[in-house]
Amino acid sequence: MVIGVGTDLMDVARMETSIQKEHFLERIFTASERERIAQRGAETAAGFFAAKEAVAKALGTGFSGFSTRHIEIRNDDQGKPLCTLTEGALERFMALGGKRIHISISHADGFAVAFCVMEGSEAQGEWNQCAQHSSK
Predict the structure, then answer these.
(1) Which residues does the chain have with pLDDT short of 50?
(2) pTM for this one?
């Protein structure tokens, strides 16, 4: 069952300016993300940032109760984006009954876009509008 969906769009040129500031990199990205960004540049940073935003939206809270560093974006051996949650982000995901996170990132015309779908069991204590509506 889908428990959350989020998307975000990021301007690569804006990220290019931001990543010139070391404090920005350290505040937003994990050490492994910073290493990947150092290798690949602003387009990767923009994709990672958009993915973090998409995950936060899918969690339904934005960055409330956790920071961007509690959502880590990485790639598997084939380049597929993966997501690891820690601290408050992981707590929120578990409270929603989360089981799996799917991330997609794309780049075109100076922008990076990311999409997140979260799967899990029905959230504890939250009203499911679709189930309520369809039962009438």
Answers:
(1) 123, 125, 127-136
(2) 0.87
